[in-house]
Amino acid sequence: EIVLTQSPDFQSVTPKEKVTITCRASQRIGNALHWYQQKPNQSPKLLIKYASQSFSGVPSRFSGSGSGTDFTLTINSLEAEDAATYYCHQSSSFTSMYTFGQGTKLEIK
Amino acid sequence: QVQLVQSGAEVRKPGASLKISCKASGYTFTSYSIHWVRQAPGQSLEWMGWINADNAKTKYSEKFQDRVTITTDTSASTAYMELRSLRSEDTAVFYCARSTGSYYDYWGQGTLVTVSS
Question: Which residues of A touch B61 (CB under 8 A)?
Fold first, then answer.
């Protein structure tokens, strides 16, 4: 099983700050890494697909990068509405098995 | 617009089974796969398995393989997830999600399952 490890687990940030969340895969997965945002009592929402492609309708302050085993989600100029838990997710075609990271909770001060 | 609408909350006793439905609309059902994800209270997302809605081929997580069955009714554009031998750790919200085979672009609203004696 491919394990995804996110860091940090929790971060408290102020509005307009820049935030970086990392996700490390236990095996190389190319660019088969996606990012989701989940607010309390809501379903997850897709932000970034294939490591760096923004999903339709997602604000431009969200961006992704990386390939292989190391990936990054960046939120530029954080807004209050970005308070949520963020998850990375891998979809390696080699295994057809999928896994999620443990999540990173963002608190807005 | 694409929608995945799941069946309502369930309460079961340990050892029982349940079957959750996920009705799709707004797209060609057989052009995508449906995945199921479990989220225990305060925990991360946990992938359970998926079904190719075109050919009904399935793949399950090793963790759930012995207890889960995912099926579809293409005439009703609906996917189902059956989970057997329920235990307390199955108290969770279960989501269905649409996939092209990689990312999940649409999710159901979630179904809360409570397992308690």
Answer: 97
CA dist list (Å): B84 to A7, B13, B15, B66, B112: 35, 11, 7, 9, 16
The residues facing B113 across adjacent strands are B10, B92
CB–CB contact A101 B105 (8 Å):
no
Give the C-alpha separation, A54 to B20, whole Å.
Answer: 31
Distance CA B39, CA A94 (A): 25
Length of chain A counted residue by residue? 109
**Tokens at B62, concatenated:** 């090793």
Among the partner-chain residues B44, B47, B101, the one whose CB lies closest to the CB of A103 is: B44
pLDDT tens sequence across B56-86:
999 999 999 999 999 999 999 999 999 999 9
Residue A18 exposed, middle or buried by CB count within 10 Å (0-12, 13-18, 19+): exposed
Q: Tell me the residue type at A67.
A: S
CB A66 within 8 A of CB A89: no
The strand pair at B92-99 and A104-108 is best described as unpaired
Q: Give the pLDDT confidence score for residue A96 in this predicted structure.
A: 74
Which of A48, A43, A42 minimizes the C-alpha distance to A88?
A48
pLDDT of residue A92: 81
